[in-house]
Amino acid sequence: MSTPVSTEIHEAVASALKTLTARSAALTWEDLPEDIRIRAARVFCDDLAALVVAGAEPELAALREGLARVAGVAEASVLDGSRPAVKMDRYSAALANGSAADWAELDGGYRAVVCHAALYCIPALLAEGEARGSTLREMLLALVVGYETVARVAHAFSFPGLVLHPHGGLATVGAAAAVAKLRGSDAETAFKAITTAATLCLPGPFNHAVSGALIRNIWPGLCAQNGIRAVDWAPLGLTGSPWSLTEVFADIFGGETNPEALIEGLGTEWKIAGGYHKMHACCQYAHSTVEAVLTATHGRAIAASEVASVEVATHWKGRKLDRPQPGTSLAAKFSIQHIAVSTLLKGHAGASAFDRASLSDPEMVALRARVTISAYPQDLPWPNDRPALVRITLQNGEVLAGDCLSAPGGADQPFSDEAITGKILGNLSAWPAAEPRIAEILLLSPARLDAPWADTLTALTA
Question: pTM of this prediction?
Answer without folding.
Answer: 0.97
